[in-house]
Specification:
heterodimer; A: 10 helices; disordered C terminus; B: alpha/beta; Rossmann fold; FAD/NAD(P)-binding domain; five-stranded parallel β-sheet; elongated
Chain lengths: ~200, ~675
């Protein structure tokens, strides 16, 4: 059963204003040509294609867009952004949508993707850089797939791609400040209109 | 016995590479009447033509066969060459041994040579029967008629008049200006329509070379290019325009109010009226249907029962120069003109056939032209866009494109071309009028092909927040004070519903009322929808199949203002070219009717696509006579006649038969 969409006036489209504010992109520029979808390497997995995600934002279809897997499956390769004839950074729009989902504490449709991102940031916070072995280990243990991708390990070790110990940045103070500032901005951007649950 | 000379052209290797020219030359010498044969590498070249000229003189030739390329290519060239040698140009015949022979039979040279011989043989047989033919000169009346006073007709009239020729501009309505006068702004520049149109209207009324006939219609057209006899009916206005000063007292005081045509029903006018303040001429007419005095006269005339209507006549009592003239009658004006420009324009599709959109019964479902009037500062609401039902300001407005366009089921499969742009303009203007308005446009495609058009529709979306929804609306229904609009956004693939305050239907373009009748009066073609048909859609876009009759503007098909102006100017250029000649020469290859064989059955006259056959009385019966000014020599009458009365000069039965006999003796 396909539900009828009630179209809201542009002024009441909170979804679009949030995405425009956080991504810096003008969503109304999208004229739905579909070049993003055509070039996307993961779109075959998406339930709404990249073009449809853009359209859903234009129409303000927040609830159903939030439920989709699509924006979680974006690998940020930016092929879409590089090719968009209207010069929209579509990958940034996908990022904004994840941002919104996290702000509103929605259960991510792709839990493991969210988990991966969390571990990634945790490690960057701790060491100032990503630590591949740590990330792989953490992710595999917490995601419940302890043996995922382990067949690749010997080859990667042999080529020196996986240093056992983490590298650190010399100025960790700066990294901490970046994170602090980001958290501050996040709090500020999460106004009442985004419906953030405290 | 005629003395025929045959000239064989090699056309480089085009002909000679396939056809064995010496063999052909040898064979041709044997044909009856041939006294001279020559061949040349390029007969069309200057030395080639000189050789033909010299041979005609030296050998006393009186018939010539040129065996070369298609007559479409060089018939005129060779006629000139023959003529230069002192021979009548119609005593020449072309045997096409290139397109009809060497080019298509390059794989079989022997057979090609044989075919070339036979083609020349036929031409020799035919040319022997050729007669001298002469072109005729017809006079040119240096005056033009322009039918329709919209922007295309205005442009055409001004351009012709500025070139120094007399113009009669005929307009059916009480004022010129047409559709453009009804518009508020024009896309994509947002120029005020009246501001750019009014100066041109005034120019028309003041031009010494233009005779403006408003409230008039062309009733009858006869004749042909250079000499059209035209009858124009000047309808009675019941106001003497010579004495009327246009002071306006009559239309201010007239007590009878009716929906105004110019306002598309959004406002009212009085019975004595000018359609809009900048009307040209700015003098009124009295509408006899609504006028109280005419109703009174009608009541008396028909001896009707009941209450007698008042014999009002307030306008007459108040008119300072006493210009009201109840006795005025329609007047027939006869003119002779050399050329005619048809610019009868368009009207918008009647949306009442769309039951799903309310069929015209929902008051807040209006047409785009009605919205133009509502947005116009001199319109009925002085530029306030309000809902017809309750006078409130709409905040949510939905536009529906393609109402009566791209709709096979409604008999309108074509695109009306202008709607995409005017919807974008109107949606954008609504936001300018009231920033609180949200517009939605349901569209199938956004067709914005034109200078600065795409940028304009993008601007409407990006800057003015007009939301485009791709799909056709399926239903509109009233829900309390809201109009529920149901469609699909085919881009997301979901049905959508909008609670709107007002719906604007972008009604499509169709030919003006009576355009087909005008076409019939002029004997020009029109298509199934009633649009005029051009002589060639690409290469002769303003000409018709009748010489001297041109078409311009939206009577040919949906066109916007710049296109209409361009076509008006183009038609004018063609007229100016015609009128710059003192006389016209006619092609002598026309039909001629043998009066003694004609039974007066009229079949030829009915079948003639150029209306070139008239019936004239002779010896107590009617016989057909060909008007050489109109005849194009198509030969239809020759084929149709049961008593073989018509024959086509240059292609008589005897000539055609001689070719057949030459081939199969």
């Amino acid at each position: 059963m396909i539900n009828t969409v009630t179209i809201l006036p542009a002024a009441k489209n909170d979804l679009r204003s949030f995405v425009e504010k956080t991504s810096g992109q003008k969503l109304l520029r999208c004229y739905q040509c579909g070049k993003c979808t055509a070039g996307c390497p993961t779109a075959y997995l998406w339930d709404l294609t990249p073009r449809q995600v853009m359209r859903a934002v234009q129409l303000g279809l927040k609830e159903e867009l939030m439920r989709t897997h699509s924006y979680w499956l974006c690998v940020f390769c930016q092929t879409c952004s590089a090719r968009c004839p209207q010069e929209i950074d579509i990958a940034a729009v996908m990022d904004s949508l994840r941002h919104l989902a996290i702000l509103e504490k929605r259960a991510p449709a792709e839990k493991e993707v969210a988990l991966f991102h969390r571990h990634f940031l945790r490690l960057v916070h701790r060491f100032g850089k990503v630590w591949e072995v740590g990330l792989g280990g953490l992710y595999n243990l917490t995601s419940g797939h302890p043996l995922a991708n382990t067949s690749l390990l010997p080859a990667m070790f042999a080529r020196g791609k996986l240093p056992l110990l983490p590298h650190t940045t010399h100025n960790m103070e700066e990294i901490r400040n970046i994170f602090k500032r980001a958290e501050e901005l996040e709090r500020k951007s999460a106004g009442p209109e985004t419906g953030r649950k405290a | 016995m005629p003395r025929v000379g045959v000239f064989l052209c090699h056309c480089g290797t085009n002909i000679a590479g396939v056809v064995d020219i010496p063999t052909v030359a040898e064979a041709v010498k044997q044909f009856p009447g041939v006294v001279y044969v020559d061949d040349n590498k390029f007969s069309c070249s200057e030395p080639g033509q000189a050789a033909i000229r010299q041979s005609i003189i030296d050998n006393g030739l009186d018939r010539v066969v040129i065996s070369a390329c298609s007559p479409r290519m060089h018939e005129i060239t060779f006629r000139k060459a023959v003529s230069a040698a002192g021979l009548n140009p119609y005593l020449m015949e072309i045997a096409n041994i290139r397109e009809h022979c060497s080019w298509v039979h390059s794989d079989n040279k022997e057979a090609a040579t044989e075919k070339a011989i036979e083609l020349v043989k036929m031409a020799v047989a035919k040319v022997s029967l050729h007669q001298e033919l002469f072109r005729k000169r017809i006079s040119m009346e240096k005056k033009a008629l322009v039918i329709g006073g919209g922007i295309a007709g205005i442009q055409a009239a001004l351009d012709i008049a500025n070139a120094g020729h007399q113009v009669i501009l005929v307009e059916r309505e009480p004022t010129i200006g047409g559709r453009m006068a009804q518009l508020d702004k024009t896309f994509p520049t947002l120029d005020c329509s009246a501001c750019i149109l009014s100066p041109k209207m005034v120019d028309v009324s003041q031009h010494p070379n233009i005779r403006l006939l408003t409230y008039s219609e062309v009733e009858k057209v006869q004749g042909f290019v250079g000499n059209f006899e035209v009858e124009i009916r000047q309808r009675a206005r019941y106001v003497n325009h010579t004495t009327c000063t246009g002071c306006g007292i009559c239309w201010q005081k007239c007590p009878e109010k009716v929906p105004g045509e110019f306002e598309e029903g959004t406002g009212q006018r009085t019975s004595v009226y000018i359609p809009f303040p900048q009307a040209v001429p700015s003098k009124p007419v009295i509408d006899t249907v609504s006028c109280r005095y005419f109703k009174y006269l009608d009541f008396i005339d028909k001896k009707m029962e009941g209450k007698k209507p008042p014999p009002c006549r307030i306008c007459e009592k108040l008119c300072p120069p006493q210009a009201i003239d109840w006795e005025q009658k329609d007047e027939i004006i006869r003119e002779t003109v050399g050329a005619i420009v048809v610019a009868t324009g368009f009207k918008t599709f009647d949306h009442s056939v769309y039951g799903e959109y309310g069929g015209g019964r929902i008051p807040d479902v209006i047409t785009s032209l009605q919205l133009e009037r509502l947005m116009n500062a001199s319109g009925p609401t002085l530029g306030e866009v309000v809902r017809p039902s309750d006078g409130t300001h709409p905040k949510t407005v939905v536009f529906l494109s393609c109402v009566g366009s791209r709709d096979e089921a409604k008999g309108r499969p074509y695109c009306s071309k202008i709607c995409c742009m005017y919807m974008a303009k109107q949606a954008l203007m609504l936001k300018e009028h009231d920033p609180g308005v949200q517009s939605y446009i349901f569209y199938i495609d956004i067709r914005a092909g034109g200078k600065d058009f795409e940028e304009f529709t993008r601007r409407a979306q990006e800057e003015f927040g007009v939301l485009y929804l791709r799909g056709r609306v399926s239903k509109i229904y009233q829900d309390d004070k809201k109009l529920m609009v149901c469609g699909e956004d085919s881009l997301i693939g979901r049905p959508v519903e909008i609670a709107a305050d007002m719906v604007v239907l972008a009604t499509g373009v169709e030919p003006s009322e009576g355009a087909a009748k005008v076409a019939q009066t002029l004997n020009i073609s029109y298509d199934t929808y009633g649009f005029m048909v051009e002589a060639h859609p690409k290469l002769r876009p303003v000409e018709t199949n009748t010489d001297g009759i041109l078409v311009a503007g939206a009577c040919v098909g949906p066109r916007d203002i710049p296109d209409s102006v361009a076509h008006g100017g183009a038609a004018a250029a063609k007229v100016i070219g015609l009128l710059s000649q003192d006389t016209l020469t006619t092609e002598p290859l026309t039909a001629a009717i043998d009066a003694s064989r004609c039974t007066g059955c009229l079949l030829c006259s009915q079948i003639c696509p150029f209306q070139a056959i008239d019936m004239v009385p002779a010896n107590g019966k009617s016989i057909a006579v060909v008007n050489e000014g109109l005849c194009k020599g198509c030969g239809l009458c020759v084929a149709a006649c049961r008593s073989t009365a018509p024959s086509l000069k240059g292609y008589t039965d005897a000539q055609i038969l001689s070719e057949v006999l030459a081939l199969c003796p």
